């Protein structure tokens, strides 16, 4: 990485710089904070499963291997007494963001990741992933009309956010969180088949951190009024775009577990669908 990895203060400046109104900032920034918190909770859970795998006896791991030889989730469920210090030893303190995060026991299921996930990078990516939505408003809060997104332009928000971040000196690895989070991974084939107004390319996560943010994003919607989305509700939404889309979402739930949105919905006074 040769360009800027923004601090949390700089992230807020980037939001304020592009936001067309305070109302737009409150909507988009709040969503990004929520997604960042959920993403870090998911990453923390994944890292805990990874740590547990490292400390389990070999024979315990052998008890729950499927036909493909991969350790399943049931043998790797963390007991509540798993020492936080053990995880700290594997995840450097500078990679752990200090702000309110839903407890990882709000997540059920999940499988061991291929490697430890950078929680700080996940938090930064979550805070910036939707920054391009400021540029796809039909009514942006400055025209005496309620906020409203442009349906035709909305699909471009990821790419627009990516371009905005690069224009402002943000490193490619960070800007990609904006580009690669739409749906459950937007492929070149999807773009061409659906005739989407995007340059034909793959807009899919290229690492675990981006994938975690993409998953977390599905649990909160900026629709007006904003709301939380349960895993079951998003499964139904994913199915509208085809069985392959639904299957991909279910695979992500299998890997990352199911996040219980109800406590955060109460905290933010939003409904759950």
TrEMBL record:
InterPro entries: HD/PDEase_dom, HD_domain. Pfam families: HD (PF01966). Residues 117-219 form the HD domain. CDD domains: HDc (cd00077). SUPFAM superfamilies: HD-domain/PDEase-like (SSF109604). This is HD domain-containing protein. It comes from Bifidobacterium santillanense. The lineage of its organism: Bacteria, Bacillati, Actinomycetota, Actinomycetes, Bifidobacteriales.
